[in-house]
Amino acid sequence: MSETPEGTRDPVVTPVRVVIALCLLAPFVAMLWVGSYAKVDPAFIGIPFFYWYQMLWVLVSTALTMVAYQLWQRDQRARKTRTGGAAQ
Amino acid sequence: MNDGVNGVALAVFIFFFLAVTIVGFMAARWRKAENEHSLDEWGLGGRSFGTWITWFLLGGDLYTAYTFVAVPAAIYAAGAAGFFAVPYTILVYPLIFTFLPRLWSVSHKHGYVTTSDFVRGRWGSKGLSLAVALTGILATMPYIALQLVGIQAVLDVMGVGGGENTNWFVKDLPLLIAFGVLAAYTYSSGLRAPALIAFVKDTLIYLVIAVAIIYIPIKLGGFDDIFAKAGEAFSQTNPATGKPRGSLVPAEAGQWTYATLALGSALALFMYPHSITATLSSKSREVIRRNTTILPLYSLMLGLLALLGFMAIAAGVKVTNGQLAIPQLFEDMFPAWFAGVAFAAIGIGALVPAAIMSIAAANLFTRNIYKDFIRPDATPAQETKVSKLVSLLVKVGALVFVLTMDKTVAINFQLLGGIWILQTFPALVGGLFTRWFHRWALLAGWAVGMVYGTVAAYGVASPTQKHFGGSSDEIPGIGEIGYIGLTAFVLNVVVTVILTFVLKAAKAPEGIDETRPEDYTADAGDPGVQTELPPATAGTSH
């Protein structure tokens, strides 16, 4: 591709960015693998597993997105200070 | 449907309805900018909304009255299969986290109001932009119609609207009034009206769900009893199909359908014009990212709401039209005054998205059909005027749709709309990350996806309908039953990629890309990014 930026830019793939990607990817794996949660037991206060597990994932995926957001913020800030006033 | 009018509930309903009407008209004066005659003002609320307003607006926009009625109705009818709405809304947020901030940035940099604006600018193709605009308008119209169906369901249960033998005018009068009021304040206040009303709507909805999820199970003897009764009801044989009515957990065969519906719907949601309108009205890139972390609160509410479908079964609600199950449950379970609050929540829940959808469809028409093809020299004031008029026309169209045609027609079209809108994904989201695709290949892929999706959906039969009986069909090559929209989307991408190779080899003209890589990461405060006022007025002031 012709989009490779010139000069001494940071690498596109860094460990932090891999973690961000995993945080965003995890809900897809968990939710699309329906076989892993299509069962009645164990029930929680009478609600079958199938339902409470997915509702729990609303909270888990929210937490993961929040982590991704925080890491991304930090990543961007670090990059800005490193490139200094070079951009504008 | 019901014996007599529920007076107390109706009075409460009317009270809330009047309150939001006043709010709707007053919204015109809220956070008003100098240049009220620009499309940025009327159609995007001045692009000035912060995190919380955006949260209410997006929540009010995406979780519509129809959702509130239809999701529990699907559970009531078939059990587990209807719960796919929950994984669907879980997947939406990590997804938009990746691409929506880029769309926000490039739109602010270039003053794009619609997705088609971006598609035209990125791919340099008016044809592709027209295809995206038409798809958006076509997919939105039946969605607006369904909002009116949601209001109708509530009115029916309250006993207004009458039975089969009342005169049509008396029957439809309440809906006509609700509609007239909605049209009037959308016309005068633009996107500010639904943004303010969304506060009222969501407060009511959260209140009703919180009460319902505690109060109703107590009355019904706890979740154990509710699910035991529901399981029993689902195991009974449906005379129409000869199979059990539904199940508490999806069977092996239904799991592909469940997953593909969740994924396909998640991909499609932010292709809808009304989602993008609400997104672009926010004032910075950060507002959007932050919203992806707080919007899931609505998904939690949706999950709880879905459980009401089981409660309706356990409470012995018997309705022939599944759409009435939840309103009927509220009427049976709650004291009259609180039923009124619940009905008001659903009714107002219909007004917010209907307003945003009509604004979004009108913006598409104005920017990508009127300005691109009819009057290229239209001024911002003229654009706004056309948009306001079209927003009225769109709503009248939806009303005529609901009043003259069977409800199933609106539902069929909504189902098709979801399949169609997903076909704009490659041009839009693809374009946000790469310019590799060829514009003609994207257009061809879109066309193939549209045709395949429509034909496949037409061919699905159900016990009650010969055509459009559902949204899933056998996936060619895999043999499992899956969401047609997703199959069409995969086909769309394959065609696009192959044709891109062919067209590149043939050196077909690529079109001019007016965006630059740094436009996609620009934020409020960067040079050249309009935060509040569009350039027209900024220039005239000195």
Automatic annotation (TrEMBL), chain B:
Q: Does the keyword Membrane apply?
A: yes
Membrane topology (UniProt): Multi-pass membrane protein
**Keyword vocabulary terms for this entry:** Membrane, Transmembrane, Transmembrane helix, Transport
**Top-level division of the source organism's lineage:** Bacteria
A single Gene Ontology MF term assigned here is:
transmembrane transporter activity
Cell compartment(s), UniProt: Membrane
Extract the ranges annotated as region (Disordered): 514-542
Question: Where is it mainly found?
Answer: membrane
One GO CC term of this entry?
plasma membrane
Q: Membrane-spanning residues where?
A: 6-28, 49-69, 75-100, 128-148, 168-187, 199-218, 256-273, 294-317, 337-365, 386-405, 411-433, 440-461, 481-503
Q: List the InterPro entries.
A: Na/Glc_symporter_sf (IPR038377), Na/solute_symporter (IPR001734), Sodium:Solute_Symporter (IPR050277)
Coiled coil feature spans: none
As for family, the record states:
Belongs to the sodium:solute symporter (SSF) (TC 2.A.21) family.
User: What protein does this entry describe?
Assistant: Permease
